[in-house]
Amino acid sequence: MTFINYASREINCKIVYYGPGLCGKTTNLQYIFDKTNPAAKGKLISLATETDRTLFFDFLPLELGTVRGFKTRFHLYTVPGQVFYDASRKLILKGVDGVIFVADSQVERMDANVEAIENLETNLKTQGYDLSAIPYVLQLNKRDLPNVASVDEMKKLLAKKNEPIFEAVAAKGPGVFETLKGVAKLVLADLTKSG
Amino acid sequence: MAPDIVMYEEEFNQIKAIISKLRVDANSKVVFLVDKNGQQIAAHGDIENLDTTSLASLTAGNVAATDGLARLIGEKEFSILFHEGEKDNIHISIVAQRVILVVIFDERSSLGLVRLRVKKASEELNRVFANIMAKVEREKAQAGAAFESPFAEITDEDIDSLFSE
To answer: A176 is in which domain, residue-wise?
Structure first.
C-alpha cells in the first residue's frame, strides 16, 4: 500500500525481505546500509535477540531521489526467519508494496526455502495479497559457498511466476543492489498502472 | 485489504492544524501521526533531535504486535497504549481505525489531560480521514476514464536514474 503524499510530494513504499532463517535478509540490509550515502539513509533499526537473530524486524529507510517531481522513500523491512516467529512475520507483511524472497543456495537449505516460500504465500493471503499479483523478486543468496544448488534447479523449485531472479552474495555485496533495484522497478511500475 | 491512503494539500493542512492544536492543548512535547504501516503522516513539536522515521516504524510495529495480542485473547483491539518513562511518556491511540496518533509528554502534562485532549482531537481527525477516504473513492471511480495518475509516465530511465549513484 503505497502512501502518496501530494502535499509534500512524496511517495513512500514498503519493501519486505522474506526467507528462511539465516538466509541473509538482515545481511542484505546491512550491506545496503553500509554502502549508502549517509544523506540518503536513516538509521538501521534491528530488533534482534542477544545472539543477533531477528526477533521482530529490521528497518532501514532509504531516500532514493525524485521521480517526476516526487521524492521516493523506500522503507526496507526484514522478517524473522525462524519458524516460531510466524505471528510477527504476518504483521510485517501488512501494507507491503514489494517482496524480495531471499533463498539460501546451499543444497541442505532447499527444504527450508520451499517451506518459507509457501509460508510467504499463505501469510500474504491472510493480509489480502496474492503473490502472483504483487511486485516480487527472487534472490538466490550465498552463491559463493561450495555446496550450492544450481541456478536452474533452484528456479525449478522456487520460481512462482516470471519473477526477476538475482544471484547474490549478500555478505560481500554482489547482487544486493541489483535485487533492490529489481523490486523497486516493479513497485514503481505498479504505480503507473494503478495511480 | 484497506485502500491506499492518498494525502491532499487541503486535508494535510487540516491535519497539521489539529495536531498542532493538540500539542498546545495537551501541554505535550511532540504529537505525530503515523499510518498503520509505519509511514509518518505529520509531526509537530520538538522534532529536531528526534528520529521520527524510526519512531514511526517502531510505533507501527508496536501497535501491530499489540493488535496481535488483542486478537489472541479475543479482543478486537487495544485502542490505547501508554508507555511511562522516567521523564518522558508516550501515549498511543488509534484514530479512524487506520491511523496512529502519538503524543510524547513529560511532567508538565499528565496522562489525564493527554487522554482528554486526544479524545477531542480524535473526533476531528476522524472527520478529516473520512473526507480523505471519500475523495480517494471518488477518484477511483473516475479512474478508468479521466483520472490522470502523476506516475503514468514513469519510465525505465527515471527508475534507473534513482540508482545511478
So the answer is: 3-194
